[in-house]
Automatic annotation (TrEMBL):
Name of this chain's protein: 2,5-didehydrogluconate reductase
Domain NADP-dependent oxidoreductase residues, every copy: 22-262
Originating species: Petrotoga mobilis (strain DSM 10674 / SJ95)
Pfam families per record: Aldo_ket_red
Binding locations of substrate: H112
Length: 274
């Protein structure tokens, strides 16, 4: 698997193509976000990730329109929030996200967290939206193996994506293997450990070898694991830096060095306790 361009993508189980590298927008708002999205699109990003809970879908829709890039060239992801889970309320949330984004379809719609007792019903709403052609692909976020197995056992469609916390301190090898076996594309949020990767000596050493930053090394590590990744920044130099990861490849030994940093350590919530 060779990934050599920001325009490279991978196929989901239903043959829909998703870019390997995306632009995350959690906690980003206002003009700063609008300019960040426009800049990201201008330099080649094509996957924009948002969520109902982020309260920034309107700004993202505005930025996409101002970018003048055709809608069908952009892969937009949003997510239904926990308090709106359930069949009818999920359908309503989806319609509201479309209105705020100013689009008539989504490329990917996710369940944000596995709310106990509600995510099966919520998933059935996503299946309905998918069958109606309102969304090109459906998936989940923060689901562990037992949550995914529950959907596989009780629903018609297997999730096409699972967006989870994934970084050098949280490899989640069993989850990655399960998703790969079941053709569920893993996608990494918080891939840079909220900036902490800058201070890990083993990663700094590899970065020095390639004349890259520790962040670039970790994003490349994601891609070489077959994991879609969505780093977040509103600063132009960082947005550009995060995209400058296609002119080198980590060796097998370097991949193992980073893999061995795994501590099963979360910086976000545990999906079983959220």
């Amino acid at each position: 698997m060779r990934i050599t361009s920001i325009y490279d993508n991978t196929e989901l189980a239903n043959k829909v193509k998703i870019p390997w590298l995306g632009y995350g927008t959690y906690k980003a708002h206002g003009d700063e976000l609008i300019e960040g999205v426009k800049y990201a699109l201008n330099i080649g990003y094509r996957l924009i990730d948002t969520a109902e809970m982020y309260e920034n879908e309107e700004e993202i829709g505005k930025a996409i329109r101002q970018s003048k890039i055709p809608r069908d060239e952009i892969f937009i992801t949003s997510k239904v929030w926990n308090t709106n889970q359930g069949f009818e309320s999920t359908l309503n949330s989806f319609e509201n996200s479309l209105k705020r984004l100013g689009t008539d379809y989504l490329d990917l719609y996710l369940i944000h967290w596995p709310v106990s007792g509600r995510y099966i019903e919520t998933w059935k709403a996503l299946e309905k939206l998918y069958k109606e052609g309102r969304v090109r692909a459906i998936g989940v976020s923060n689901f562990l193996i037992h949550h995914l197995q529950d959907i596989i056992n009780n629903c018609e469609i297997t999730p096409m994506v699972n967006q989870v916390e994934f970084h050098p301190y949280l490899l989640q090898r069993d989850l990655l293997d399960f998703c790969q076996r079941n053709k569920i594309q893993l996608e990494a949020w918080s891939p840079l450990m909220r900036g902490r990767v800058q201070n890990i000596p083993q990663i700094v050493d590899i970065a020095n070898k390639y004349k890259k930053t520790p962040a670039q090394i970790v994003l490349r590590w994601d891609l070489q694991h077959g994991v879609v990744t969505i780093p977040k920044s509103v600063h132009k130099e960082r947005i550009k830096e995060n995209a400058d990861i296609f002119d080198f490849e980590l060796t097998e030994e370097e991949m193992k060095i980073i893999d061995n940093l795994d501590q099963s350590k979360r910086f976000g919530a545990n999906p079983d306790d959220f």
